[in-house]
């Protein structure tokens, strides 16, 4: 019984040490105007005849085979909000915010609004 207790304590200490040394994942989002060659699982959204790509909450415009990070166009509608969005209230109205972009629920979609 004593050996089992010592073994359990040793395992707990090793687990605690590995948790302390674990790496943090920090997401860095590109600035507007940044050109990238690939984006992960983009969703195509067409607004006023212009094709935009949305990936992980970042808006892009295609330029040849590359993508340029751009501002979210006012009035564009999406079906789902990006992961990590926050609920904010401005002058009593409910909005959803992610990386400085505010969305307002309209029916079953969310539209980009400027506050």
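Q: What amino acid sequence fits the structure above?
A:
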């Amino acid at each position: 019984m004593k050996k089992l207790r010592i073994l359990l304590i040793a395992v707990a200490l090793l687990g605690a040490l590995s948790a302390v040394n674990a790496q943090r994942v920090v997401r860095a989002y590109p600035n507007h105007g940044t050109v990238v060659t690939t984006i992960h699982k983009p969703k195509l959204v067409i607004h006023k005849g212009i094709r935009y790509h949305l990936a992980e909450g970042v808006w892009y415009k295609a330029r040849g085979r590359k993508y340029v990070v751009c501002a979210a166009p006012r009035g564009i509608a999406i079906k789902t909000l990006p992961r990590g969005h926050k609920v904010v209230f401005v002058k009593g109205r409910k909005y959803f915010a992610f990386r400085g972009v505010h969305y307002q629920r309209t029916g079953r979609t969310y539209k980009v609004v400027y506050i």
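Q: And what stands out in the fold?
A: The mean pLDDT is 86.
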